[in-house]
Structure formats: structure tokens, C-alpha cells
Amino acid sequence: xxxxxxxxxxxxxxxxSVAAMMVHMEVENTTRSADQIRHLMGKNLDVMxxxxxxxxxxxxxxxxxxxxxxxxxxxxxxAGDFLSGQPxxxxxxxxxxxxxxxxxxGLICATPTAGSAGVLAGVLLAVRERLAMTRDQQIDFLFTAxxxxxxxxxxxxxxxxxxxxxxxxxxxxxxxxxALVCAKGGTVVQAANAVAMTLQNMLGxxxxxxxxxxxxPCVKRNALGASQAMISxxxxxxxxxxxxPVDETIEAMRRVGMQMPSAFKxxxxxxxxxxxxxxxLKQQIFGDR
Amino acid sequence: xxxxxxxSVFDIIGPVMVGPSSSHTAGAAxxxxxxxxxxxxxxxxxxxxxxxxxxxxYRGHGTDVAIIGGLLGMAPDDPRLPDSxxxxxxxGITVGFVPKSDKVDHPNTARIVLKKGxxxxxxxxVSIGGGNIQITEINGFKITLSMGTPTYITIHEDVPxxxxxxxxxxxxxxxxxxxxxxxxxxxxxxxxxxxxxxDYQPGILDQLKQLPHMINATYFE
Lengths: 289, 221
What we know:
Catalytic activity (chain A): L-serine = pyruvate + NH4(+)
GO molecular function, one term (chain A): L-serine ammonia-lyase activity
CATH architecture of the largest domain in chain B: 2-Layer Sandwich
Distance between the termini of chain B: 23 Å
Number of helices of chain A: 13
Helix content of chain B: 25-40%
Oligomer: heterodimer
Number of helices of chain B: 6
CATH architecture of chain A: Orthogonal Bundle
EC number (chain A): 4.3.1.17
Structural class of chain B: alpha+beta
Strand content of chain B: 35-45%
CATH superfamily of the largest domain in chain B: D-3-phosphoglycerate dehydrogenase, domain 3
Cofactor (chain A): [4Fe-4S] cluster
Radius of gyration of chain B: 17 Å
Number of strands of chain B: 11
Strand content of chain A: under 5%
Largest sheet of chain B: 6 strands, mixed
GO biological process, one term (chain A): gluconeogenesis
Number of strands of chain A: 1
Strand order of the largest sheet of chain B: 3-2-4-5-6-7
Number of domains of chain B: 2
């Protein structure tokens, strides 16, 4: 097993791909066969695809605080008159879609968490046709993301309540960036650089949900995570390198998470959650209960 | 080597779940489900104590709904989950939530107390992110139960010979016991055993359940 990105990169040299290594480790650690493991991942993929489609069609959250904006983004894309590029905007639209479905208590696949579930599904669905990915390659994409995510989770964390949004959307974005690099034919070292650059850009991001709900700012934070993943992947593929090594970056994120005041760790006691508008919304949604 | 809390790729990619929060909804439902499985019965009364982030944001995240859904036996992807409070009410179960301001070791902590007749079970669970959970206390005894390790939990009468009878079953099936915790609330009361083993074998659970003085046995991985 690998416990650092350095170990992940080194050990992956013995396998055809990071995904193949991850499947192998999963077989070693469980009673399941490789086929069963790939089949399970395929079911996760199916849920991701469905949640993107459901969100784009248009959903509203239980509270009414968020919704219908993936649909709006889709209309904007169709109109064709936009500033940034098509793939990034598709990833953004997809990411918003998944998190709108999440906010209405719909079915999603947590990657690594529900609040950050839009990022990985969002970028995968934005590139799978462009890269002519087969179903097996899409499943590999998820194993690659999971491998990098495991290292981040074990050395820092993936709960907003533990380390803020940097550990949720930040981790999701880093995993997605690594999987994008590998899917595009980049090296594992390039994927590691993409992880480092992503986490560095996400460092310090707080978790300040309005009314304690996974809606504002979470839904649009997923748009940030998805677009940053695409940008980091492109930077890594272009040969850009992180000055601070990736494992030191993950350790820095852990420290920032520890030092972050509890007001910014999913308690709704700081940041956007305590703005006058947020407090008014909270009162409207929950009343005096 | 870091403190390895996440073991499987499916801890990171997954679970498939009803939103909105993996730690506050899916993790909460999983804690409830584990407690339901250990109790092995429908309780008459449920009291849930919530700490820190759980205490402050449980309504917005549906943590209350999810824990009760789990305690009714629902998994995190069960479409009935959003309606669990009503289902509990319809079944005549008394449900109470108590947000606490005490400091605890982990921000997402819930202490669940179940009662039926003279039976009482008290379990503390924490949700560590991405829907993953740990059980840290059963009936006042500190334990570590991480999902991902094959684990058996038995609830039985506190009579002589139970430990020997249970361990004999594992020994006869050639299964190694990694760790083992035996606890009871008071002498002669119900006792609990938590056994982490190296391999799963179908059929063992039935053998455990058929032992005299056994009240319930459950398996987790």
C-alpha cells in the first residue's frame, strides 16, 4: 500500500497504470475479486452520470435556496457566446448539476464527500467524449482519482468539520486533476504536480455553510473545484512543476486545517454563514424551532 | 506511516447516497444502522445526543433524519430516508434529540441511547468524512470499531462460559481473532463482545446466534 504520493508514484512503476495498482490493492485488502471491484465502481459511475443529467434538466433544493442554475448554465453554453472555454464550462455546469441534486436530497456518489461530489463527476463528463474514453477508461479514471484521494485523506482529511472546505472541494479538485492528467496520457509525476498545484490554490478555503446547509456556497464551490482541476491538469501537462513537493503540500493543508478556528469548520458560526443575509435566510428556513 | 483512517478506494469514491452531506447525512445514517444492527430489535425509545458540528448543523444536513433512518435499518442510499421521522412516529417510537455543548474528541459525534423494556444500549459514533464512521464507545466502554475490518459484535447474558463458547466457534473454523473487547454494564446484566477477525466465513454468524444465552450477534466489514 502507498501512504504518500511519493510512494504512490514509485509503486505505480510496477503496474500498467495507477488505476491498475489501485484495483490490485483493493483485491489484496478485501475478499472481492478484481471483476467485482470494477463492477462496483461502474455502479458509482452510473450514479454520477445520472446525477449530472438530473441536475442539468433542472432541480430545486428542499429549502429552495439553490437550484435551476445548472440548467441556466446549460442554456448559456448552448447559446455559444461565452468567455472561457467549452470544456471548462461544461465541467462547471456538470459540477453545479450534481450538487443541486445533492441539495434536494437526491441520489449522488460522494467523491470524496457529498458536498464536493460535483467536481469529479463534473470533469469526467466534460472530457469523456473529447478523449473518446471507453466505459473501462472512465472506471479507471475513478480508480486513479481514488488512489490520490486516499493519500490526501489519510495524511490530511476530507471532512469540512475537521479541516474546512480546502479538505473537501480542495481534495476533490486535486483528485480530479490527477485523474485528468492520467486520462489525457500524462505521466504519474505530472499527475502528482497537478495535485500539488491544486491544493496550493485551495489552501485555507473555509467551510461556512449558510444556515448549516450544503447549498451556499457549496454548490458554486464545486464549480471552482471543477475548473481548477481542469486548469491544474493543463498546467501539469504543459510541464509546469510545483515548487513545494506534493506531500509537503498535503501536510501544510493538514496544519492549516488544525489551526483553522472551529467557526470556519462546518459550524455555520463564521464567514458567509454569519452575514446579515445568511442569518435572515436561516430564520426564514428554520424559524424559531 | 500516517494514522490510516481510510483503507478502501470506495471510502473515497462512494458511497452512493441520498444528499446532502456525506459526513452529516450518510455517515449519520451509517452510525444509526450499526447501532440498529447491534441492538437487533426495534427500540421503544431513542435519544440522540449531538456534539459540536453535529449539534450546530444537524437540521440543515438532515443528520436527525439520517440517524433515525439508520436506527430503523435503512442504508444511506435508501429513498425512504427523508421520511424516517414520520416512519418512526407511525411505529410508536419515542424520539428525542439533545444538542450538547460539551467538548468531545471529534467534531461530528453522536451518542445514541436505545431502550426497550429493561434493555438499554448506548453507543457513541463519529463520522470522519466521506460517509466513513468509527464506533468509539459501547455502553460506556471505549472501543475502536472502524468500518473496513471484519468485526463481530455479540450481545449476550452475562453468564460463565460465554467467552469460551464464542471463541471456540472461531477456533473450530480456523479464524484468527485480531482484537477482542468484553464489556458489561453491571455484573449479571447484558454483556457485549467485540471481535475483530482476520477472515470472514459465512455461517459463523448463525452459529453465534444459536448459542444459549446469546441475545444478538452481528457482523460488519
